Recover the amino acids of this structure.
Protein backbone atom coordinates (compact mmCIF):
# COMPACT_ATOMS: atom_id res chain seq x y z
CA UNK A 1 0.00 0.00 0.00
CA UNK A 2 1.42 3.36 -1.02
CA UNK A 3 2.05 6.17 1.45
CA UNK A 4 0.24 9.50 1.14
CA UNK A 5 3.55 11.04 0.02
CA UNK A 6 3.82 8.46 -2.78
CA UNK A 7 0.18 9.04 -3.78
CA UNK A 8 0.80 12.78 -4.07
CA UNK A 9 3.92 12.28 -6.19
CA UNK A 10 2.08 9.81 -8.44
CA UNK A 11 -0.71 12.34 -8.98
CA UNK A 12 1.64 15.23 -9.77
CA UNK A 13 3.77 13.10 -12.12
CA UNK A 14 0.63 11.96 -13.95
CA UNK A 15 -0.64 15.55 -14.28
CA UNK A 16 2.72 16.70 -15.64
CA UNK A 17 2.70 13.95 -18.26
CA UNK A 18 -0.90 14.75 -19.17
CA UNK A 19 -0.13 18.24 -20.47
CA UNK A 20 3.52 19.18 -20.17
CA UNK A 21 3.82 20.86 -16.74
CA UNK A 22 0.76 22.04 -14.88
CA UNK A 23 1.36 24.96 -12.57
CA UNK A 24 -0.80 27.47 -10.74
CA UNK A 25 -0.56 30.59 -8.60
CA UNK A 26 -3.96 30.38 -6.92
CA UNK A 27 -5.95 27.39 -5.73
CA UNK A 28 -9.72 27.49 -5.22
CA UNK A 29 -11.93 24.87 -3.57
CA UNK A 30 -15.61 25.16 -4.45
CA UNK A 31 -18.18 24.27 -1.79
CA UNK A 32 -21.56 22.56 -2.22
CA UNK A 33 -23.50 23.78 -5.23
CA UNK A 34 -20.86 26.29 -6.36
CA UNK A 35 -19.33 25.82 -9.78
CA UNK A 36 -20.42 28.55 -12.18
CA UNK A 37 -17.08 30.35 -11.76
CA UNK A 38 -15.44 27.74 -13.98
CA UNK A 39 -17.36 29.21 -16.94
CA UNK A 40 -15.07 32.25 -16.71
CA UNK A 41 -11.84 30.23 -16.84
CA UNK A 42 -9.85 30.60 -20.05
CA UNK A 43 -7.56 27.95 -21.60
CA UNK A 44 -9.53 25.50 -19.52
CA UNK A 45 -8.39 21.93 -18.92
CA UNK A 46 -10.85 19.71 -17.02
CA UNK A 47 -9.55 16.55 -15.38
CA UNK A 48 -11.80 14.24 -13.40
CA UNK A 49 -10.53 13.10 -10.01
CA UNK A 50 -11.30 9.58 -11.24
CA UNK A 51 -8.48 9.89 -13.79
CA UNK A 52 -5.77 10.98 -11.38
CA UNK A 53 -3.84 8.15 -9.70
CA UNK A 54 -3.78 8.43 -5.92
CA UNK A 55 -6.58 11.01 -5.88
CA UNK A 56 -9.63 10.32 -3.68
CA UNK A 57 -12.99 10.41 -5.45
CA UNK A 58 -15.77 12.85 -4.60
CA UNK A 59 -19.09 11.12 -3.85
CA UNK A 60 -21.36 13.95 -2.67
CA UNK A 61 -24.19 15.61 -4.62
CA UNK A 62 -23.20 19.13 -5.63
CA UNK A 63 -19.50 18.18 -5.82
CA UNK A 64 -18.70 17.22 -9.42
CA UNK A 65 -15.20 15.96 -8.73
CA UNK A 66 -13.00 17.76 -11.27
CA UNK A 67 -9.76 19.68 -11.31
CA UNK A 68 -10.10 22.79 -13.49
CA UNK A 69 -6.81 24.26 -14.75
CA UNK A 70 -6.62 27.53 -16.64
CA UNK A 71 -6.46 31.32 -16.52
CA UNK A 72 -8.84 33.38 -14.41
CA UNK A 73 -8.44 37.16 -14.11
CA UNK A 74 -4.95 36.80 -15.65
CA UNK A 75 -3.86 34.37 -12.94
CA UNK A 76 -2.99 30.70 -13.40
CA UNK A 77 -5.49 28.81 -11.27
CA UNK A 78 -6.36 25.30 -10.24
CA UNK A 79 -9.94 24.92 -9.09
CA UNK A 80 -11.39 21.95 -7.25
CA UNK A 81 -14.92 21.57 -8.54
CA UNK A 82 -16.02 19.67 -5.47
CA UNK A 83 -14.02 18.71 -2.40
CA UNK A 84 -13.28 15.49 -0.54
CA UNK A 85 -14.85 15.05 2.92
CA UNK A 86 -13.88 13.05 6.00
CA UNK A 87 -17.42 11.64 6.25
CA UNK A 88 -17.02 9.96 2.85
CA UNK A 89 -14.84 7.40 4.61
CA UNK A 90 -11.40 8.81 3.81
CA UNK A 91 -8.71 9.57 6.35
CA UNK A 92 -7.88 13.25 6.86
CA UNK A 93 -4.52 12.54 5.23
CA UNK A 94 -6.42 11.41 2.11
CA UNK A 95 -8.92 14.28 2.33
CA UNK A 96 -6.06 16.77 2.10
CA UNK A 97 -4.14 15.10 -0.74
CA UNK A 98 -5.53 17.72 -3.19
CA UNK A 99 -4.05 20.55 -1.10
CA UNK A 100 -0.66 18.79 -1.13
CA UNK A 101 -0.97 18.37 -4.91
CA UNK A 102 -1.76 22.07 -5.38
CA UNK A 103 1.23 23.01 -3.24
CA UNK A 104 3.53 20.97 -5.48
CA UNK A 105 1.97 22.69 -8.50
CA UNK A 106 3.09 26.02 -7.07
CA UNK A 107 0.08 27.74 -5.49
CA UNK A 108 0.82 30.54 -3.01
CA UNK A 109 -2.77 31.46 -2.13
CA UNK A 110 -5.73 29.18 -1.45
CA UNK A 111 -9.39 30.27 -1.43
CA UNK A 112 -11.67 27.84 0.39
CA UNK A 113 -15.40 28.30 -0.14
CA UNK A 114 -17.97 26.33 1.80
CA UNK A 115 -21.60 26.06 2.83
CA UNK A 116 -22.19 26.53 6.56
CA UNK A 117 -24.95 26.58 9.12
CA UNK A 118 -25.43 29.88 10.92
CA UNK A 119 -25.21 29.58 14.70
CA UNK A 120 -26.33 33.16 15.45
CA UNK A 121 -24.01 33.77 18.35
CA UNK A 122 -22.32 37.15 17.99
CA UNK A 123 -23.44 37.54 14.36
CA UNK A 124 -27.08 38.03 13.21
CA UNK A 125 -26.67 35.55 10.38
CA UNK A 126 -29.34 34.49 7.92
CA UNK A 127 -29.28 32.23 4.84
CA UNK A 128 -27.37 33.90 2.00
CA UNK A 129 -24.95 35.81 4.24
CA UNK A 130 -21.22 35.58 3.54
CA UNK A 131 -18.70 35.01 6.33
CA UNK A 132 -14.92 35.40 6.06
CA UNK A 133 -13.30 32.84 8.35
CA UNK A 134 -10.91 34.41 10.84
CA UNK A 135 -10.27 31.32 12.98
CA UNK A 136 -11.59 27.83 13.56
CA UNK A 137 -12.44 25.21 16.17
CA UNK A 138 -11.59 21.64 15.18
CA UNK A 139 -14.38 19.40 16.46
CA UNK A 140 -13.62 16.67 13.93
CA UNK A 141 -11.50 15.10 16.67
CA UNK A 142 -8.73 14.26 14.21
CA UNK A 143 -5.87 16.06 12.51
CA UNK A 144 -4.43 15.55 9.00
CA UNK A 145 -0.87 15.95 10.33
CA UNK A 146 -1.10 12.84 12.52
CA UNK A 147 1.14 10.01 11.33
CA UNK A 148 4.59 9.75 9.74
CA UNK A 149 6.10 13.15 8.97
CA UNK A 150 7.77 14.14 5.73
CA UNK A 151 9.90 17.28 5.88
CA UNK A 152 8.76 18.22 2.39
CA UNK A 153 5.29 18.88 3.84
CA UNK A 154 6.56 21.59 6.21
CA UNK A 155 7.41 21.74 9.90
CA UNK A 156 6.25 18.96 12.20
CA UNK A 157 4.63 21.35 14.70
CA UNK A 158 3.21 24.29 12.72
CA UNK A 159 2.10 27.45 14.51
CA UNK A 160 -1.64 28.06 14.19
CA UNK A 161 -1.83 31.71 15.29
CA UNK A 162 -2.93 32.94 11.86
CA UNK A 163 -4.23 30.10 9.75
CA UNK A 164 -6.51 32.47 7.83
CA UNK A 165 -4.52 35.35 6.38
CA UNK A 166 -5.38 38.80 7.76
CA UNK A 167 -3.98 40.29 4.57
CA UNK A 168 -6.32 38.26 2.39
CA UNK A 169 -9.29 39.04 4.64
CA UNK A 170 -8.53 42.75 4.34
CA UNK A 171 -8.41 42.37 0.57
CA UNK A 172 -11.71 40.47 0.59
CA UNK A 173 -13.38 43.19 2.67
CA UNK A 174 -12.17 45.91 0.28
CA UNK A 175 -13.50 43.97 -2.70
CA UNK A 176 -16.82 43.32 -0.94
CA UNK A 177 -17.14 47.00 -0.13
CA UNK A 178 -16.46 47.90 -3.76
CA UNK A 179 -19.38 45.74 -4.90
CA UNK A 180 -21.57 46.62 -1.90
CA UNK A 181 -21.56 43.00 -0.72
CA UNK A 182 -22.02 42.67 3.03
CA UNK A 183 -19.55 40.29 4.65
CA UNK A 184 -19.01 39.22 8.24
CA UNK A 185 -15.90 37.81 9.93
CA UNK A 186 -16.44 34.77 12.09
CA UNK A 187 -15.17 31.55 13.62
CA UNK A 188 -15.80 28.24 11.87
CA UNK A 189 -16.58 25.11 13.88
CA UNK A 190 -15.73 21.91 12.01
CA UNK A 191 -17.77 18.79 12.74
CA UNK A 192 -17.14 15.44 11.08
CA UNK A 193 -20.69 14.85 9.72
CA UNK A 194 -22.44 13.53 7.76
CA UNK A 195 -25.33 13.93 10.21
CA UNK A 196 -26.18 17.53 10.97
CA UNK A 197 -25.44 18.73 14.49
CA UNK A 198 -28.00 18.43 17.27
CA UNK A 199 -29.48 21.55 18.89
CA UNK A 200 -27.45 20.79 22.04
CA UNK A 201 -24.23 20.57 20.03
CA UNK A 202 -25.01 23.85 18.28
CA UNK A 203 -25.52 25.56 21.64
CA UNK A 204 -22.21 24.11 22.86
CA UNK A 205 -20.42 25.42 19.76
CA UNK A 206 -21.97 28.84 20.35
CA UNK A 207 -20.61 28.86 23.91
CA UNK A 208 -17.17 27.95 22.53
CA UNK A 209 -17.31 31.08 20.37
CA UNK A 210 -18.21 29.61 16.98
CA UNK A 211 -20.32 31.61 14.53
CA UNK A 212 -20.83 29.00 11.82
CA UNK A 213 -20.63 25.22 11.59
CA UNK A 214 -19.60 23.02 8.68
CA UNK A 215 -18.07 19.67 7.72
CA UNK A 216 -14.94 20.71 5.82
CA UNK A 217 -12.40 23.57 5.47
CA UNK A 218 -10.42 22.91 8.67
CA UNK A 219 -8.36 19.89 7.52
CA UNK A 220 -7.55 21.71 4.28
CA UNK A 221 -6.59 24.86 6.20
CA UNK A 222 -4.32 22.96 8.59
CA UNK A 223 -2.40 21.37 5.71
CA UNK A 224 -2.20 24.61 3.74
CA UNK A 225 -0.91 26.41 6.83
CA UNK A 226 1.77 23.77 7.36
CA UNK A 227 2.72 24.11 3.69
CA UNK A 228 3.18 27.88 3.88
CA UNK A 229 0.14 28.67 1.73
CA UNK A 230 -1.92 31.78 2.53
CA UNK A 231 -5.54 30.82 3.17
CA UNK A 232 -8.73 32.79 2.63
CA UNK A 233 -11.86 31.06 3.91
CA UNK A 234 -15.17 32.30 2.50
CA UNK A 235 -18.34 30.62 3.75
CA UNK A 236 -21.92 31.23 2.74
CA UNK A 237 -24.75 30.57 5.19
CA UNK A 238 -26.90 27.95 3.48
CA UNK A 239 -29.19 27.43 6.47
CA UNK A 240 -29.54 28.19 10.14
CA UNK A 241 -28.18 25.43 12.38
CA UNK A 242 -30.33 22.88 14.24
CA UNK A 243 -32.38 24.35 17.05
CA UNK A 244 -32.14 27.79 15.44
CA UNK A 245 -33.72 26.83 12.13
CA UNK A 246 -37.47 26.29 12.26
CA UNK A 247 -37.33 23.71 9.48
CA UNK A 248 -35.79 20.28 9.04
CA UNK A 249 -32.24 20.54 7.65
CA UNK A 250 -31.63 18.98 4.23
CA UNK A 251 -28.82 18.91 1.69
CA UNK A 252 -31.33 20.02 -0.94
CA UNK A 253 -31.77 23.28 1.01
CA UNK A 254 -27.99 23.76 0.97
CA UNK A 255 -27.84 23.35 -2.82
CA UNK A 256 -30.85 25.59 -3.37
CA UNK A 257 -29.39 28.42 -1.29
CA UNK A 258 -26.06 27.98 -3.08
CA UNK A 259 -27.81 28.93 -6.33
CA UNK A 260 -29.05 32.16 -4.74
CA UNK A 261 -25.64 33.29 -3.50
CA UNK A 262 -23.45 31.85 -6.28
CA UNK A 263 -23.31 34.92 -8.52
CA UNK A 264 -22.41 37.20 -5.60
CA UNK A 265 -19.75 34.80 -4.32
CA UNK A 266 -18.28 34.24 -7.79
CA UNK A 267 -17.97 37.99 -8.31
CA UNK A 268 -16.18 38.31 -4.97
CA UNK A 269 -13.77 35.44 -5.65
CA UNK A 270 -12.91 36.61 -9.17
CA UNK A 271 -12.12 40.15 -8.06
CA UNK A 272 -10.01 38.87 -5.15
CA UNK A 273 -8.01 36.70 -7.57
CA UNK A 274 -7.59 39.71 -9.86
CA UNK A 275 -6.12 41.75 -6.98
CA UNK A 276 -3.72 39.06 -5.75
Amino acid sequence: MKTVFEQINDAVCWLNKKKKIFSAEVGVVLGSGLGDIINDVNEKVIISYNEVPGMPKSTVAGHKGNFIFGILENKKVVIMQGRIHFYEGYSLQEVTIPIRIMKKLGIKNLILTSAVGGIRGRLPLKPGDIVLIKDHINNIKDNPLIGPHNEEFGVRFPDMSEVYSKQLRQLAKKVANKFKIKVYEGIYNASCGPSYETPAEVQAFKKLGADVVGMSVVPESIVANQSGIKVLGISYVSNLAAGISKTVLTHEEVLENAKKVASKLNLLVKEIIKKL
Remarks:
- The first strand starts at residue 26 and ends at 29.
- DSSP finds seven helices and nine strands in the chain.
- The CA atoms of residues 119 and 203 lie 8 Å apart.
- Strands lie at 26-29, 42-48, 66-72, 75-81, 109-118, 130-138, 183-190, 212-214, 230-240.
